[in-house]
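Problem 3 from the worked examples.
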Amino acid sequence: MDAILRYQGLYGDQQLPMVSDFIHMEPLEERSKIYSWEIEEHLHTDLVQLFIIQAGEGILVSERKKTEIKSPCIITIPANVLHGFQFKPEMLGTVITFSTGFLDSLLREKPDIKKEINRLCRFSFDHNSEGFKSLLRLKEHIQRELFEEAPEKILALRACFELFYLELYREKFRTTSQELISNNRSLKYFQQFQDSIRQHAQSLLSIKDFADALGITQTHLNRVCHTVTGKSALKVVQDFTMNEAKKYLLNTSYSIAEVAYFLNFNDPAYFSRLFKKRVGVAPGEFRKG
């Protein structure tokens, strides 16, 4: 395995921040251009980062695993976690880097938020542009506080970062809730689809007919089946049909051609080919055991 790049400072910089309240902000493109938009996998021993992506696309790499990045999104990078990037040129965004000591003091009395947020996460805001705009306003407030001298600067920064992390925490739960609702709805449609397959076992409908009966499109039905089983709607129907075929072959003396006709196959040869493809053996071999 290649040696792990460890930085006590920013990427390419071994300089150690000397203060516990170290905070740094820079345009994402400023450092990325220096390295031709490709940041090798590395980790920071004492720093955490927020990548606020406003425009462009790229790839997040962590322990060789690649995750697609599309704007608008926010990426949280904890300390001591391998990460790298492959950005497309002209990516626009902001990188905020601060010490683990600052984060610990910030979220010391907020363990639930720290547990959920202090990990490698990508927050997509494709369907929540207002939420992203709210976070951009907080980012701009942080930027003003960093580059202007005003009384109680650290207090103001702490308040901004607390709100920033609270918004990310809420976004995580909003996304999780939507996924649960979507998955529950998919499960309901899938169960109705299974019921419909059983009801029409002797005169199986087309996938379009099944979808129409559920009040959804054929594309939606396929998406439901992929979500629940990882298979297309057609393969779900075929699975049911093959299970029925197995019952006939094991528990009756009907010929293979008769079984094929019972299951609405006009061509017994096609039934045999499909059975072998899905089950692994021909119907006759399956019956012999």
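Problem 4, a separate protein:
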Amino acid sequence: MKSLYQLKNITFNYGTDFNLVDVCVDIDKSNIIAIVGPNGSGKTSLLNILSFLKFPHAGTLIYNEKELALDNFEKFRKTVGYVQQSPYLLRGTVFKNIELGLKLKKINKALRAKKVSEVMQLLGINKLSNRNARNLSGGEAQKVAIGQVLALDPDVLIFDEPFTHLDKDSIDELEQIVLKLKDELEKTIILTTHNQYQAQWLADDVYSVIKGKVFEYQMINLFSGCIDFENNAFNTGKQLIIIPEDINNAEHIAIDPKQIVISRNKIDSSMQNSFQGKVTGMAEVNGQVKVSIESDEEFQAIVTHKALEELSLTLGAEVWISFKSSSILVF
């Protein structure tokens, strides 16, 4: 698959305590990329670079096999459609809102009508054509905002927290639209979300952003704390977790949920971490099961349905969880 974006050791310095530091990201064409992380972590800053609104202060930015420079990167903005978290719709009908960009490009009226009709058909919003855009629900407004950028046929669609403040039905509909844009139009889609599990099933690749650092890793079991050098462990304040050796500094760890082994009795194995806990939740995640286990900390494990049946897991069941120190990302 052909690479569209390559970010190599990208740094963006705000001149404050917050910076994007040494970011390395590789995005293939026609893929869905999810970027997850807490508020203020740097997600929107990364989107600004990917949409060519901000140019990095250091590192190499390659787009479609072209290395960008300060004097040429702005011309690539037209290849990207950026939908903000709270899109602003103009007064007038839905049709007029979606048509506006084409009108500004001086596309003739017949072609504008054809393109707007095709976009509304794809998004399933034909019935909204004559509605006042200011009177739409959150889910409807989000679709119209997507229609505005889609009408201009960008190669990349960037959505900043598109699922925020939507009800479940609207979220389900928007997720299906994202998949359709990839499968039917072969668009490259980059989106941010707070929902780790949504990112996991929806996206081809997931990047986590924590304090300006970007990791290609599922930050589901994310803990803050400090190193306990005497025990070669990470102290979360509630639990000591054995980490790989020769780690000199760390503020966070993340544990791969697929590397956590659940058992009914303590396992005699080489896995350095083993804790007793209680099952507090189970949920379907992309054909597998997410099991929440409350020990001194709460852990999330991903298991198969077969494993779930073999363990006879139920809510409240006493279990053991075990994992290797090599399954822990320390940063």
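Solution to problem 4. The chain has seven helices and 21 strands. Residues 3 and 28 are 4 Å apart (CA to CA).
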